[in-house]
Amino acid sequence: MSSDEGILSVPDPGRTMEGLRDTGYSFETAVADLVDNSIAASATNIDIRVNQDFRGNVRVSIADDGEGMDRDGLIEAMRYGSPRRADPASLGKYGLGLKTASTAYCRRLSVISRNSGEAALHMATWDLDHVMEKQKWLLLMSEEPDDEAVAHLSDVASDKAGTVVVWTKVDRLLGHYQNPGGKPAQKALAKRVIELHAHLAETYQRFLNAKDQRARNVSISLNGNKVEAWDPFQEGLSELVASDTILIETESGAEAEFTVRAFILPRREEFPTDELAKAAKLSSERQGIYIYRQERLIHDADWLGMFQKEPHSTLLRVEFSFDHRLDEAFHLDIKKSQIILNDDLWNWLKNQFLPAPRRDANRRYREGQKKDVTKKSESAHDASNRNIGNKEAEVGGAEVNVTDPNTGEVTVVNTRGKFTLKLPVGAATKPGEVFIQPVDEVSDGLLFEPAIIDQHKAVRINTDHPYYRKVYVPNLNTSVTVQGMDSLLWALCVAELSATTDKTAENFSDMRYEVSRILRKLVESLPEPDTESEADVA
What we know:
Elements: H1 13-19, H2 27-40, E1 45-52, E2 58-64, H3 71-78, H4 97-103, E3 106-114, E4 122-127, H5 128-134, E5 140-142, H6 147-156, E6 162-170, H7 183-203, H8 205-208, E7 219-222, E8 225-226, E9 239-249, E10 255-264, H9 274-279, E11 288-293, E12 296-302, E13 316-322, H10 343-353, H11 355-376, H12 382-395, E14 399-404, E15 409-414, E16 417-422, E17 425-426, E18 436-439, E19 448-453, E20 456-462, H13 466-472, H14 479-499, H15 505-522
Parallel strand pairs: 1-7, 11-13, 17-19, 18-20
Antiparallel strand pairs: 1-2, 2-6, 3-4, 3-6, 4-5, 7-8, 9-10, 10-13, 11-12, 14-15, 15-16, 19-20
């Protein structure tokens, strides 16, 4: 009978550290992982600094007034796979985030800490170049931290416990610039800082909002600017249209619950002020499910593969909240940035919870969009009316006289004889609008139909038809294009009246129906236009 031999197999230090640099952190999620550690250490103030010297060297420093660590605690914290935190609800989870998040962007990670105001400062450093050179897991310890780190800690946690995390040898944050300290590089770094600010405001919204009782209040600042909470659901302005709390059994047999809530935001013009509308960041990209673990956002604005993002769902945002007890059930990843739902839950969300909110959001979007299109089309056809008015006599065509305006009965005299037809008969809605008249409805959903407006041969164009919405609307500010399309539809209607007879009138009507149907089909794959109220105002 054979027995297995146990052989100690130690990972190669350099290759392991280099490999763990590619775990998929974005700059924003990497910094957030460090903020998680500060919150887990009971910090109330967290200060982040992202700076660049004249040579282009970037330094990232994150200081907090949390519990801090003594020398032994610091060594343990810097160990890959550091001990599990006593509190299972902690935002710090796997004992890898500090190291993997940091070295995803820098080659030298230093942590300076003290566990009381009277205690000495201790500094531990992972230097990837040193580890590669020595081929050993050599953590560098120092009792004399650099002055800049000490000053930063003093600013945030003067005479009390606290910690500073410092990134130097930052080699993956910016691209390669001929002049690393030049203006293009500075501009690129400033952009990254703006993106980080927005990410922190959203990720820690419930911690940053002093009025939110769901999470302990924390203050975060970035390069001297306080980070204010950003609420994706705009509670108080939006409408809660669906809510459910589900109790499920965990793998250990215990019970835990998660909450799902669906909100429909107002359209841009429905917000009390332009500032509030801008703060809501209305855009198609912001729709979707926002996932929270322990009140911290871990994944945002995504339908988890259930649906495509499309404009009709722009106003719908869904909250999915759970706590640490469901980490295993939802397969939380190392970056705490996504979860995997089992098939039953995924199908429940898609087929039972979300259909009603999606229909409601779709209806409100379309109602508002219809108003937007009507508003945008109000003066878009003025040039067409003027141009056709100048050419009306020269174009000629059939003679049409209204015999009964109430029933729409008209007599048409053309080269084929004199005939009685029924056409829409009406008046101009504004001066000069007697040839091209945009309307929000045409019988049978047609794109266009001939009409008589103030005794002139005219065309009524359906602004609710997909062709108008997807082809006309994006070009309403381009007068020549609009005149070209208007002239074509008007010419078709005038030609129809010139060629119609009692026997062919129905055929022309069928042709307009087929043209409208075909155009509806052809524009299905074209993008929805950005009308004023649905454009991203962030």
